[in-house]
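Help needed: design a sequence for this.
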């Protein structure tokens, strides 16, 4: 029953709320990497040690409440089917590494799915807090609260000089990875983003695709996060990211206004063509679907398209991924079958929006 609850809906409950700058910043994530004292780190630990870590997490936190977010439920990776794990990856509740490569991996999830604690991924614990819109300070407060709650029961590997010890040297120190998911179609269309990215990298930040490291930036969605965790306080890391994100928001808004002023007809044509394809296509690949959804979301945000929920991008970007398509079908699908079902699902979703307006 627990697993079914987490994989049956594409939209996590926390995603049903809007946050600040939500037309450009879709979500905020704060992640803390932690390891347990006196245990080998996951990259070299034995199965027995990994089992002991899962056992401790289960005993201390499963079924327990933290503020309004509990009770937490523990899901173990080796008790799940491959596609069930894929669905959790598509919802950003676990990482691809936890799904595919971890020894005795597990995840502890809050009821609204805004908090997930991955167990035995690259580190013993990866505490992750998710918020709608741009809420980076709120995310840090919650993550630190969860961190303190966990530390009441478990002792972390910590060095007075280096800070929190982690498997990867780039996470040593605070163990903090702060990131935001941004929709930047106008900066892409005006070819400004490629000029901005090198400057972002020089500031110690990194730009990745929708599923993090090594993933593609589908649908003009980009994940911006810090690279440096050692030698900076959590507050400084968050403030550095905050400044860059606010600049990107400003530049994306300016690029959108420029498109409206200089290329309105072409922009409207692009939006309506994409809307027509989504409304009537009989087969569509995931990459094209993501691009068309991005165009439609831009049209909604600029009032070119009216009466359609802006959440359609968030929802369908997850719902049309391979894991969800196969979960709903109840079987493994070929690429062609997925493309057909993806088109049918999008048509049905667009139809619901049309009926809602009439």
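Sure. Designed sequence:
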């Amino acid at each position: 029953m627990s697993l079914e609850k987490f994989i049956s809906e594409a939209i996590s409950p926390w995603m049903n709320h809007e946050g600040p700058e939500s037309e450009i910043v879709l979500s905020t994530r704060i992640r803390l990497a932690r390891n347990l004292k006196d245990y080998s780190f996951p990259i070299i630990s034995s199965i027995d040690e990994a089992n002991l870590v899962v056992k401790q997490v289960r005993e201390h936190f499963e079924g327990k409440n933290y503020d309004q977010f509990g009770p937490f439920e523990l899901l173990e990776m080796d008790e799940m089917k491959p596609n069930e794990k894929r669905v959790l990856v598509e919802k950003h509740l676990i990482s691809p590494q936890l799904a595919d490569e971890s020894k005795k991996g597990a995840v502890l999830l809050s009821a609204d799915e805004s908090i997930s604690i991955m167990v035995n991924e690259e580190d013993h614990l990866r505490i992750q807090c998710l918020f709608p819109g741009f809420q980076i300070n709120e995310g840090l407060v919650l993550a630190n609260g969860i961190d303190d709650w966990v530390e009441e029961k478990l002792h972390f590997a910590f060095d007075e000089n280096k800070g929190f010890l982690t498997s990867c040297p780039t996470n040593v120190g605070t163990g903090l990875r702060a990131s935001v998911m941004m929709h930047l179609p106008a900066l892409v269309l005006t070819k400004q983003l490629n000029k901005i990215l090198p400057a972002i990298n020089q500031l110690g930040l990194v730009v990745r695709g929708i599923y993090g490291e090594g993933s593609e930036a589908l649908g003009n969605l980009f994940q911006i996060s810090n690279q440096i965790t050692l030698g900076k306080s959590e507050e400084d890391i968050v403030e550095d990211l905050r400044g860059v994100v606010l600049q990107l928001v400003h530049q994306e808004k300016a690029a959108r206004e420029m498109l409206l002023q200089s290329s309105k007809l072409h922009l409207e044509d692009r939006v309506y063509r994409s809307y027509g394809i989504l409304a009537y296509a009989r087969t569509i690949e995931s990459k094209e679907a993501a691009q068309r959804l991005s165009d439609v979301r831009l049209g909604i945000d600029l009032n070119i398209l009216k009466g359609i929920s802006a959440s359609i991008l968030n929802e369908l970007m997850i719902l049309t991924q391979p894991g969800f398509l196969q979960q709903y079908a109840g079987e493994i699908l070929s690429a062609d079958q997925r493309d057909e079902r993806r088109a049918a699902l999008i048509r049905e979703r667009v139809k619901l929006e049309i009926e809602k307006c009439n």
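The mean pLDDT is 92.
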